[in-house]
Amino acid sequence: MFDILDKYKTQDHFFLTPEQDLQKVCNAPADKSGVYVIYALKKGRVELIYIGHSGKVEKDGSLSVGKVGLGGLKDEIINGQQFGKTPAHIAWKKQMTRENIEALNIYWYVTHDAGYTDCPEVLKKTLLRQHQDIFGIFPKWNKAV
Is 80 left (phi over 0), alpha (psi -120 to 50) or beta? Predict the structure, then answer.
Protein backbone atom coordinates (compact mmCIF):
# COMPACT_ATOMS: atom_id res chain seq x y z
CA MET A 1 0.00 0.00 0.00
CA PHE A 2 2.86 2.39 0.76
CA ASP A 3 5.18 2.20 -2.26
CA ILE A 4 6.86 5.36 -1.02
CA LEU A 5 8.63 3.22 1.64
CA ASP A 6 10.30 0.95 -0.92
CA LYS A 7 13.24 3.33 -1.46
CA TYR A 8 14.49 2.93 2.10
CA LYS A 9 17.25 0.33 2.15
CA THR A 10 17.60 0.12 5.94
CA GLN A 11 14.36 -1.51 7.00
CA ASP A 12 13.12 -4.61 8.77
CA HIS A 13 10.26 -5.85 10.92
CA PHE A 14 9.54 -7.96 13.97
CA PHE A 15 6.56 -9.60 15.63
CA LEU A 16 5.23 -8.93 19.13
CA THR A 17 2.75 -11.17 20.93
CA PRO A 18 1.07 -10.19 24.21
CA GLU A 19 3.37 -12.62 26.06
CA GLN A 20 6.60 -11.16 24.69
CA ASP A 21 8.74 -8.33 26.00
CA LEU A 22 8.87 -5.50 23.43
CA GLN A 23 12.30 -4.46 24.71
CA LYS A 24 13.68 -7.90 23.80
CA VAL A 25 12.05 -8.43 20.39
CA CYS A 26 12.45 -4.91 18.97
CA ASN A 27 15.18 -4.94 16.33
CA ALA A 28 14.90 -1.28 15.28
CA PRO A 29 18.09 0.80 15.42
CA ALA A 30 18.76 2.99 18.44
CA ASP A 31 20.87 5.48 16.49
CA LYS A 32 18.63 6.16 13.46
CA SER A 33 15.38 8.02 12.84
CA GLY A 34 12.49 7.02 10.64
CA VAL A 35 8.94 5.76 10.54
CA TYR A 36 7.24 2.57 11.67
CA VAL A 37 4.00 0.93 10.61
CA ILE A 38 2.12 -1.53 12.83
CA TYR A 39 -0.19 -4.26 11.59
CA ALA A 40 -2.45 -6.25 13.91
CA LEU A 41 -2.90 -9.97 13.32
CA LYS A 42 -6.30 -11.12 14.54
CA LYS A 43 -8.38 -14.16 13.58
CA GLY A 44 -6.45 -14.70 10.37
CA ARG A 45 -6.82 -11.06 9.28
CA VAL A 46 -4.27 -8.28 9.02
CA GLU A 47 -5.11 -4.63 9.69
CA LEU A 48 -2.86 -1.57 9.65
CA ILE A 49 -3.51 0.02 13.04
CA TYR A 50 -0.74 2.59 13.63
CA ILE A 51 1.83 4.75 11.87
CA GLY A 52 4.54 6.34 14.03
CA HIS A 53 7.83 8.18 13.66
CA SER A 54 11.01 9.11 15.46
CA GLY A 55 13.12 12.17 14.78
CA LYS A 56 12.78 15.27 12.64
CA VAL A 57 14.77 17.48 10.33
CA GLU A 58 16.10 20.56 12.12
CA LYS A 59 16.16 24.09 10.64
CA ASP A 60 19.83 23.66 9.70
CA GLY A 61 19.00 20.50 7.71
CA SER A 62 20.41 18.07 10.25
CA LEU A 63 18.36 15.15 11.46
CA SER A 64 17.61 14.80 15.16
CA VAL A 65 17.31 11.24 16.37
CA GLY A 66 14.19 11.69 18.50
CA LYS A 67 12.84 13.10 21.73
CA VAL A 68 11.90 10.30 24.13
CA GLY A 69 15.30 9.08 25.34
CA LEU A 70 17.23 9.99 22.20
CA GLY A 71 17.40 6.31 21.32
CA GLY A 72 16.09 6.62 17.79
CA LEU A 73 13.47 4.34 16.34
CA LYS A 74 14.05 1.67 18.96
CA ASP A 75 13.45 4.02 21.88
CA GLU A 76 10.37 5.55 20.25
CA ILE A 77 8.85 2.12 19.55
CA ILE A 78 9.49 0.92 23.11
CA ASN A 79 8.97 4.08 25.19
CA GLY A 80 6.91 6.43 23.02
CA GLN A 81 3.66 7.46 24.65
CA GLN A 82 0.56 5.65 23.48
CA PHE A 83 -3.05 5.87 24.66
CA GLY A 84 -2.32 8.79 26.96
CA LYS A 85 0.99 8.98 28.71
CA THR A 86 1.70 5.25 28.93
CA PRO A 87 4.93 3.93 27.37
CA ALA A 88 4.23 1.74 24.34
CA HIS A 89 5.83 -1.36 25.84
CA ILE A 90 3.07 -1.33 28.48
CA ALA A 91 0.19 0.19 26.50
CA TRP A 92 0.46 -2.09 23.48
CA LYS A 93 0.29 -5.29 25.55
CA LYS A 94 -2.84 -4.07 27.35
CA GLN A 95 -4.46 -2.93 24.10
CA MET A 96 -3.62 -6.21 22.37
CA THR A 97 -5.38 -8.10 25.16
CA ARG A 98 -8.41 -5.74 25.05
CA GLU A 99 -8.77 -6.14 21.29
CA ASN A 100 -7.91 -9.87 21.18
CA ILE A 101 -4.95 -9.18 18.90
CA GLU A 102 -2.78 -12.26 18.49
CA ALA A 103 0.35 -10.39 17.39
CA LEU A 104 1.64 -7.10 16.07
CA ASN A 105 3.85 -7.05 12.99
CA ILE A 106 5.96 -3.91 13.29
CA TYR A 107 7.79 -2.67 10.20
CA TRP A 108 10.38 0.10 10.53
CA TYR A 109 12.19 2.22 7.96
CA VAL A 110 15.24 4.47 8.38
CA THR A 111 14.47 7.58 6.34
CA HIS A 112 17.99 8.92 5.91
CA ASP A 113 21.29 7.76 4.48
CA ALA A 114 24.00 9.13 2.20
CA GLY A 115 21.46 9.61 -0.62
CA TYR A 116 18.56 11.32 1.15
CA THR A 117 17.39 12.88 4.40
CA ASP A 118 13.62 12.58 4.53
CA CYS A 119 11.87 14.07 7.53
CA PRO A 120 10.16 11.23 9.46
CA GLU A 121 7.43 13.57 10.72
CA VAL A 122 6.51 14.71 7.19
CA LEU A 123 6.63 11.13 5.88
CA LYS A 124 4.32 9.96 8.68
CA LYS A 125 1.78 12.64 7.74
CA THR A 126 2.00 11.60 4.09
CA LEU A 127 1.37 7.96 5.00
CA LEU A 128 -1.58 8.93 7.22
CA ARG A 129 -3.07 10.97 4.36
CA GLN A 130 -2.67 8.03 1.97
CA HIS A 131 -4.41 5.74 4.47
CA GLN A 132 -7.22 8.25 4.91
CA ASP A 133 -7.61 8.65 1.14
CA ILE A 134 -8.02 4.88 0.73
CA PHE A 135 -10.07 3.99 3.84
CA GLY A 136 -11.66 7.32 4.81
CA ILE A 137 -10.12 7.26 8.32
CA PHE A 138 -6.76 7.19 10.09
CA PRO A 139 -5.49 3.86 11.45
CA LYS A 140 -7.39 3.16 14.66
CA TRP A 141 -4.46 3.67 17.05
CA ASN A 142 -3.57 7.04 15.48
CA LYS A 143 -5.13 10.23 16.73
CA ALA A 144 -6.13 12.87 14.20
CA VAL A 145 -3.19 15.11 13.26
Answer: beta
> Are 9 and 112 spatial neighbours (Cβ–Cβ below 8 Å)?
no
Contacts (Cβ under 8 Å, ≥6 apart) of 116: 7
Residues 38 and 138: their CA atoms lie apart, in Å, by 13
Straight-line distance from the first to the last Cα atom of the chain, in angstroms, rounded to the nearest whole number:
20
pLDDT (tens digit per residue) in 6-49: 999 999 999 999 999 999 999 999 989 999 999 999 999 999 99
Q: Tens of pLDDT along 51-73?
A: 999 987 677 766 666 554 456 89
d(CA 62, CA 56): 8
CA distances for 124 relative to 19, 30, 51, 63, 64, angstroms: 29, 19, 7, 15, 16
Predicted model pTM: 0.90
